[in-house]
Amino acid sequence: MRKDHRPYWLKRLQLQWRHWRTRHFLLPHFDAIGREPEIMDPGSVKVFGRNICLGDFPHLISTPDNCIRFTAMGHRGGDARITIGDYVLISPGVRISAAESIAIGDACMFAANVYISDSDWHGIYNRARPFRCTAPISIGNNVWIGDSAIVCKGVTIGENSVIGAGSVVTRDVPANTVVAGNPARPIKEINPRRRMITREALFADSFRQAHNLDELDKMLLAGNSLRGWLRSLLLPRQGD
């Protein structure tokens, strides 16, 4: 569809239903979650294990065909932990799997299909024994990880750094560095003295932002009717 044919009232009703599903069926699976989580499809966020915490204003763009997965599964019943800061953006297909500890800072952005794991999960010579070769991961504030990148065990990524799409990060990344490749290597430095605008700026006035988005919906959906929406679903035509 080129256009959203829903009437404004129907979209508002669907958003309320989504928020209700998020509060009642998804959020109880987290040990802690901050203010105003925005979950695009709560049914496609999968949470396994305990000690999984999200900060304020998380934005999870999950889709039914590409789930977001959080897994914290320690060795022999021990504790594993996933801690995620404020203002984080997580795209479809992201998988974060901890056998020990994964700590993610504020305002980080993860593109689609990123995989972060602090364990190899099996040994090279004893592949019947799980939870081998585990080391914690630490990701600093305002890190941007590109599409389908992999962050391996024991890695620390410094603040403001960028991981190129498809990269495999096997060693530490300094702050303010762009890396890419397999294995990922530095290709550019980011000027730390230049002003950096992070995702936090989007939520400086969250009430005003929500009001502006609502006003935009009213404008874009003006004139839409229930009959027109049903027609677009059942009898789509060119230009819909």
Question: In a few lines, what is going on in this structure?
Answer:
With 240 residues, the chain is an alpha/beta fold. It has helices at 8-26, 206-220, 226-234, and strands at 32-33, 38-39, 45-49, 52-54, 59-60, 68-72, 81-84, 89-90, 95-98, 101-104, 109-110, 115-117, 137-139, 144-145, 150-151, 156-157, 162-163, 168-169, 177-180, 185-189. The chain starts with 7 loop residues before the first helix and ends in a 6-residue tail after the last helix.
Order of strands across the main sheet: 2-5-8-11-14-17-19-20
Biggest sheet record:
8 strands, mixed
Radius of gyration: 20 Å
**Termini distance?**
5 Å
Number of continuous helical runs? 3
Order of H and E elements:
HEEEEEEEEEEEEEEEEEEEEHH
Low-confidence blocks of residues: none
Overall pLDDT confidence: 93
Strand content: 25-35%
The level of helicity is 10-25%
Supply the helix-strand structural class. alpha/beta
Q: Which shape, going by the Cα principal axes?
A: globular
Total beta strands: 20
Question: Care to describe what's here?
Answer:
With 240 residues, the chain is α/β, with parallel strands linked by helices. The protein contains 3 helices and 20 strands. The protein has helices spanning 8-26, 206-220, 226-234, and strands spanning 32-33, 38-39, 45-49, 52-54, 59-60, 68-72, 81-84, 89-90, 95-98, 101-104, 109-110, 115-117, 137-139, 144-145, 150-151, 156-157, 162-163, 168-169, 177-180, 185-189. The strands form 3 sheets. An 8-stranded mixed β-sheet has the order 2-5-8-11-14-17-19-20. Strands 1-4-7-10-13-16 form a 6-stranded parallel β-sheet, with no helix packed on it. A 6-stranded parallel β-sheet has the order 3-6-9-12-15-18, with no helix packed on it. The radius of gyration is 20 Å and the shape is globular. The mean pLDDT is 93.
